[in-house]
Amino acid sequence: MALIDFTLLIMKNKNFINKTDVQKIDWEKIQLEMKNKFGKDIFESWLKKLNFSGEFNNYILLTVSTRFLRDWITSRYLDQILKLVKLHKSEVTRIEISILENSMEDKAGFKKENNDKLHKNNVSFIKDFFFQYNRIDPNKNFDNFVLGSSNKLAFEASKKVAESSSHYNPLYIYGGVGMGKTHLLNSIGLKLKEINKVMFISAERFMYQFVKSIKSNEMVKFKEYFRNADIFLIDDIQFMNGKEAMQEEFFHTFNALLDKGSKVIVSADRPPNKLNKIQERIKSRFSGGLVIDIQQPDYELRYKIIKIKTEELEKYYANQLNISEEIQKFICTEVKNSIRELVGALNRIVSFSRVYNKTPSLSETKVVLKDLLNLSENKVTIDIIQSLVCKFFKISKNEMLSSRRSRYLVRPRQTAIYLTKILTSKSLPEIGREFSNRDHTTVIHSIKTIENLKKNDAELSSNIDTLKNQILYNNSNEI
Ligand code: ADP
Ligand code: MG
Description:
This protein is of the alpha/beta class and 479 residues long.
């Protein structure tokens, strides 16, 4: 099985992505694809009105002429448009749509326009500029937040805020990376944005906007904009650590919001009292609300999530995907740290299945997920590889490392060299040194030989899989 090819493929893809970085997105082509995908009517009525405005590292900026158009397209088509765009540039993770009134297009005619209109355009432009930061993802909502004992309280508290039946203000949710904090904040925003002015921003972007507004002398607008919110959701507040000016501004924004009865929801990676270098008065304000943590997911929750996500993916790929129960359980048992990693592991298995058009075996799964499985590479030493390969082929280590070229020694030697290459990060010369100072060209030759043989020699291929498995999973005591 060409597992290396899979790794190479990922690496190649990475290169490919870097190259496309320079390339510009061909919006006309994407428009054509949208037309094919959604049909002429939908395209003509809505999607054609999207104008391409700019391309950034991981997002693209589009503009439309009215708020209605933006909301309509966002709620109905944006996730699918994103998928189309991703096919052209896979690092695009979001699409932002801002409202740019038509008259902005004929900038040349600016002088002719009266001051009133100019002023209006200007204001709306700035507003929309801020709005770009108000990204609420329609796919992260309360309905698809899977519940378990570790996140139930945080979920219920968030739901209460969203139903306006909570008396606590602020709500402070904390927990490690990938536990679902952003998902919950997003869900609150999504629910409330229909009838409230919702501001959802990460502390990092708040800071960025703050600095930018100072530089461009727009602090008045900055203050107005943020203090105008009915619901203020701020994500990853630990980012404020040590940033005094920002804390000052945040504190005033925060007080102004609480004074006018707005709800504030904060997330962080740690409890308020553990926030370093953050003003005491801010911490004590946080502690004065409801503080709730999300803990690491237990097995039951992990299993529930994997089941649901697998079903979704199977449906998405029209039942052409088949992730066995064994593999699902394996992922849940092994990937414990965060829900993001858990879902990431499943996605990797899915891309494996799609690349090779087959369900991965358990040993392939182990290799594909190697870095997520706490089986860090440095536990795999050349010594372990050599010992296990020798044991497998019933030769001695001296024989393997000797310069003898008998066939019964050459294959095991090449196999061990090959396995060292794919299972460790050793360079070719380093590998050569560990095999009795062989030249790196010999190392390359060995790797190529095994790669070629594997294609047609089922027995060799299966031996390699068995060995890989032993190397990655066998307890070193057993050697
Ligand atoms: P955090 O902000 O705590 O780092 P996120 O909210 O970004 O974590 O969650 C990471 C990923 O896991 C997201 O894709 C999110 O939708 C998903 N996720 C987290 N918790 C759950 C859950 N309980 N149910 C469903 N998906 C979840
Ligand atoms: Mg987050």
